[in-house]
Amino acid sequence: MQLWRKSLYLLTLFCVPVFAITAQTPPTFGDFDPQTTADITLGDYPILPVLTERALDLYTQALESERNPAMFSKVGDSMTFSQSFLVGFGTDDYDLGDYEELQDVVDYFNTGEISPFNRENYATALGFSTASALDSFWADSEACEPNESPLVCEFRASQSVWALMMFGTNDVMNFDEATFDYFYRSVIEATLNAGVIPVLYTFPIRPEEPEKSLQFNKIIVSIALDYDLPLVNLMKALEGLDNGGVDLEDTLHLTEPLLPLTVTTFNEEALQSGYTVRNLVTLQALDILLRDMGGLPKDE
Amino acid sequence: MKRLFCFFLLCVAPVAMAQEACPVFDEALVETLKTQCRSLAVGEGCTPNAETLLLRDESISAPALVKVSGGLTLAVMGDATLTPVESPIMLVSVTNANSFELNLRQGAGRDFALAGTLPAGAVVEADGKSADGQWFHLVQGAWVFAELVVVGGDLDTLIVKGNDEASVPLSEFALVSSGGCNDSGVLFSVLGEAEITLNSVSIQANGATVFVGISDQTSELEIIVTEGDVVVSLLDEPETLVAGESLIMTADGLERVEIAETRLESLPFALVIVDAGTPEDVVYRYLEARTRSSSADMQDLSCAAWDLQAMIQSQSFRAMNAELKNVNCLANTTTDTAQVSCEGVIQTTYNGQNREWALRGFELTQEEGEWRICGELN
Fold first, then answer.
1. Nearest to residue B238, comparing CAs of B201, B264, B266, B207?
2. Fewest CB within 10 angstroms: A39, A161, B2, B274, which?
């Protein structure tokens, strides 16, 4: 299990950007064309992202505008809101195991007074969807301005450079494809307008809606392609796990390892759970992007 | 709810009634009802004595307010009594076509306790659905998540059921008068479209104010329209009434009659001003539409600049099983703008967890003579 992950990781380190920057027009509701995802095969896309030209441009602009390169925003539903997503790396409660090369990226994001791994986010919540991210009603009334969406509030409050963004688990049960495509693109537009780099994730398959989950993940891939953005193919990373890493007792969430193992313990047993895999690939993704952008030294 | 009382707030004189026992819809009575019926739910009626009545279980006699649906509340007047007429219950088959058993719940939501399981391959019958269509009510009393089952039959025939019987919407009633009071019947006003059937006469109202009187002597219905337009049908023979027109249902069918000036003056609704489009009313209906994830209704209540946000807001609670609790809004109004602050909460239930969302205020502007939501206050 570890070997293939490491292989993929190393492989992607040497990948070159393959996406061309394209100017996207803001989405229009109802414009979704299902044919745009017809040719997408999810398995063809690597688990870990490659640095895209647009991401590099955004990174440069973000540094120029003095956003905080050691800050990322978590954006998404309860799986992202969860204490199981990255929090242990901000509280010194982790074990990188054989992935000790990831210590650099953990340290990089823990250099400031506030760690993005465990800081309070304004763009994650239970029941959150792509529509919620745009709806000012979901914004924290104390931290956010009137009529400000939780997304824009989060980017203003955090001054983050990165947005680790995973949607789909709630959307797939409530929206049709056109609605999801429209709202997700609107989220991306708002993120880009804030000068933040969206890092998109495919989401774990909802057992209640497996086919629709696949279709929604294709939409996510198509959005990443259209906007030339980094993509973490989490769904692919979870494929080898029981039930795709989803907790069948609570299909909104990923599985966790049994104590004393934790979701921030990177050994073979803990990496049989969904949250642990998501944490691993997230650190790997940030490591790749930072090294390719020059934020961390490249490996020899 | 309180917005419906706006219909009566500007009563200028009590209605002269034939007998002392006949209640008069004067300002004092309206104020009392306004206080007592603040949180009236669909399928409920209430009286000046703060008695909440379940429409499904019992007849409701005047004086009372009865909330038939989200946009339709009846004032029951004189000595009229309203009794729901049960529609035949339609069933559809529901199959668990999955390879695993499904949870059954005691209510329409994942937060409700388990009520058993539906084995893989099992076929059962549903007699209702939740308002959002996401859950089916099975004849044995439990609920199952709609997206996990295969339905055999026409879903449109299923009635909407609530987790409690009070929220079961009803639309067909028997209206009777016990005798002695003038102007017995029901009065209602709707901003949009609403339909109700009284004594087998279907009344489809569109932005209308309507009085439906009942005679204790002849049991004839008298239908008077003072605003908007109404389609009245008996045995599929529709008649359209516009403001100032009237029909009487006789043994021979529907008969169009002229309204005498004196008749209009004697009627309770001739003494009230219909003003259901107040800023508070618009905000309440916007919030109520939000709990139903109704994009069309929310956009209808929004200014052009808020249209997109209304659409977004209509969708962002879809997973949340939202309902309004104890909402009471107050407006600070100028000529062209209004700021509406609301007490109360939207209560949501998601994955078994309840959350209460404090309501924010809204900014409203006038567009084409109507108050429209155009922003939020913090």
1. B201
2. A39
d(CA B266, CA B286): 35
Report the SS3 class of residue B372.
Answer: strand
Strand ranges in chain A using DSSP code E only, listed in sequence order = 68-76, 160-166, 197-201, 231-232
Class of domain A2-15+38-293: alpha beta
Mutation target among A81, A144, A147, A187 for the B interface, most CBs of B within 10 A: A147
Domains and CATH numbers, chain B: 2-85+169-271 (2.60.120.1440), 92-157 (2.30.30.40), 279-376 (3.10.450.100)
CB atoms within 10 A of CB A102: 21
Chain B CB contacts of A250 under 8 Å are 351
Taking an 8 Å cut-off on Cβ atoms, the answer to whether A129 and B148 are in contact is no
Strand partners for B292 = none
Whether ipTM tops 0.85, in short, is: no
Average pLDDT for runs of 10 along chain A of length 300: 40 38 69 89 95 94 93 96 95 95 96 94 95 94 90 97 97 94 96 97 94 95 96 96 90 90 94 96 96 79
Residue B117: its H or E element: strand B114-118
Q: Which residues, at least 6 apart from A68, have a Cβ–Cβ distance to it below 8 Å?
A: A112, A158, A159, A160, A161
User: What pTM was computed for the model?
Assistant: 0.61
Residue B215, phi then psi, degrees to nearest 5 = -95, 130
